[in-house]
Amino acid sequence: MAQISLYIDDSMVSRLNAAARNRNCSVSKYVAELISEQLSGEDTKEARKKQILKQLCGALDDPTFTIPDEISWEDEFTRRFDLI
Question: What is the pTM (predicted TM-score) of this model?
Answer without folding.
Answer: 0.52
